[in-house]
Amino acid sequence: MTTPLLVDYERKHRHDVLSLLFYSRRTHTHLDWYKTGHWLDLQGNMIQLAYDGKGKLIGVLGLSAVLNEGCWLRLLAIAQGADIRHILTVLWQSLCPRFENAGVRTVAILVINNWLTAYLPLMDFRYIEDVVTMHRTGVDLPTAPTHPLLLRNGYSEDIADMMRVDHAAFPSPWQMTRADFFNSQRQAASCTLAEYKGRVVGYEVSTRHHTSGHLARLAVIPQLQGKRVGSVLLHNLLSKFNRRGVRSMTVNTQQSNIRSQRLYARYGFRRNGFDIPIWQWGV
Ligand SMILES: CC(C)(COP(=O)(O)OP(=O)(O)OC[C@H]1O[C@@H](n2cnc3c(N)ncnc32)[C@H](O)[C@@H]1OP(=O)(O)O)[C@@H](O)C(=O)NCCC(=O)NCCS
What we know:
Blueprint: E1 5-8, H1 14-23, E2 26-29, H2 36-40, E3 46-51, E4 57-63, E5 70-78, H3 84-95, H4 99-102, E6 106-110, E7 126-137, E8 150-153, H5 159-169, H6 178-187, E9 190-196, E10 199-209, E11 212-220, H7 229-243, E12 248-254, H8 258-266, E13 270-271, E14 276-282
Parallel strand pairs: 5-6, 11-12
Antiparallel strand pairs: 1-3, 2-5, 3-4, 4-5, 6-14, 7-12, 7-13, 7-14, 8-9, 9-10, 10-11
The protein binds coenzyme A (COA).
């Protein structure tokens, strides 16, 4: 078995990577708010490439920038006909020695593509839990909750406040980077902040495609959780989307996040069976 030539990704490899992702059926892309070409250009990513002896790209493995000791395996592709087990192991083992210096303690992956499941144990990943999808249809809403909150649209100058809320509400690796917020606002149909006594205490970011909406993020600072801030943000979002003709909404949350599921259930969301496993390497 020949050892592939391993190189760090640079911009000159962009065409090779995009082409491999296009032609291979063994791919994994979980890029959230980014198109592939954009994600490849982000600062802080760790992207390793494997070339064969003839200069053909046969594998790519990309991790997101590290945030509070966690990162995501966001990009993976192995060329058609290549030895998946071998290429994957070589790519992964070439990155592992860098983790300590880079401050990486955990690497998570959302297993959107089933083919990967057989290979994750080779890289010492283990199953953590599922991300569940909840869905609601129609326009019915419960009685609006009352709360002395100021709701207003969020803009790029609010990103620092949104990050403060986000990083207090979510543990790693679920927190968003500044670049994630910037891009989420670019694509969002709704970005609302909840202010209490002049301070941002919660936010939501949601997307819309014709009559379908997706609640992408909802977070409240821990000190005010359980006091209906999340309900106020959700109620406001659903009313606004109802007026815009949205008749179907989805949201994802962790299976273990019972609090958020109770809130969504109160607003008519039901699990639709589209669950995605999360695996993780590290502690
Ligand atoms: C999920 C979240 C957005 C809900 O916002 P919230 O302001 O806490 O929610 P609400 O007060 O409107 O109530 C939501 C439900 O959770 C319950 N709840 C909220 N906080 C609670 C707490 N600290 N203890 C027990 N129950 C709690 C409420 O009682 C309510 O359930 P009910 O309608 O059956 O009474 C918020 O808890 C949060 O930011 N969590 C961390 C980030 C997260 O998980 N986001 C959602 C993932 S998609």
